[in-house]
Amino acid sequence: MTQAPCKVAIVTGASRGIGAAIAARLARDGFTVVINYAGSAAPAEALARKIGDQGGRAIAARADVSDPQAVRGMFDAAEAAFGGVDVLVNNAGIMTLSPIADTEDAVFDRQVAINVKGTFNTLREAARRLRDGGRIINLSSSVVGLLQPGYGVYAATKAAVEAMTSVLAKELRGRAITVNAVAPGPTATDLFLDGKSPELVERLATMAPLERLGQPDDIAASVAFLAGPDGAWINGQTLRANGGII
Ligand code: NAP
């Protein structure tokens, strides 16, 4: 009996944090993984080597997701290396918190460029190039439900991600491709921890009834469910993976 070929997954922003945990988990689940990064070449290459050492297949691929040309190049590289792409995980993202009244144009533009345009760039490419039967998982955030002060621009970018998730799920009718979002709550990564006092981290960590921060592996497990066989019937949904914070 011939074995089914390995499914190929691109994970954006996979050099660190949640993306690195997703790439490692998908590799453990048998996916060939493209580890995308913007600047952190060394950790991305190290993760690819580690996956290789453990018997998996992975490459690191530099591309700023806000640049459509770079995103096309990343898909080209994945197709050249592995013959096609089955799964896209749109994880790359940034967060800068400030009240709307105090937010500089550049801060607004950068979050929109990476979180919204970056997600659009990869979704457009995936819609054109993903093999039938594929999966798309976008990273949103539970702040879309919490709507706390200071999160105006960031929450707006993630609301846009959720909107594109639902629309693309319908546009891909007939190709057996699901499109879903995972919306983490506070999760222990640089993005969440940077600039917060231990007291604030503790307060935010205990807001959820499960009374702890999410770990990158918690989020990776949700993404792996949607990318794997058990998630096949879930389409056009946003799954809040947050310990019950909202
Ligand atoms: P993180 O630790 O700051 O890691 C961000 C990753 O995104 C890095 O690998 C970074 O690559 C990459 N990246 C940033 N800008 C990029 C660009 N222009 N092109 C390609 N890659 C880029 O963040 P995280 O906490 O893991 O967050 C991952 C996702 O989860 C984000 O979409 C975030 O909004 C979402 N999220 C996080 C939390 C949380 O509490 N942590 C909660 C809800 C949602 P380099 O290292 O190369 O810069």
From TrEMBL:
Top-rank taxon, per record: Bacteria
Domain spans labelled Ketoreductase: 7-185
Transmembrane segments: none
GO molecular function annotation: oxidoreductase activity, acting on CH-OH group of donors
Alphabetical list of InterPro entries matching this protein: KR_dom (IPR057326), NAD(P)-bd_dom_sf (IPR036291), Sc_DH/Rdtase_CS (IPR020904), SDR_fam (IPR002347)
Any Pfam family the entry gives: adh_short_C2
Entry annotated with the keyword RNA-binding: no
UniProt keyword Iron present: no
UniProt keywords, alphabetically: Oxidoreductase
Protein name, per record: Putative oxidoreductase protein
Lineage: Bacteria, Pseudomonadati, Pseudomonadota, Alphaproteobacteria, Acetobacterales
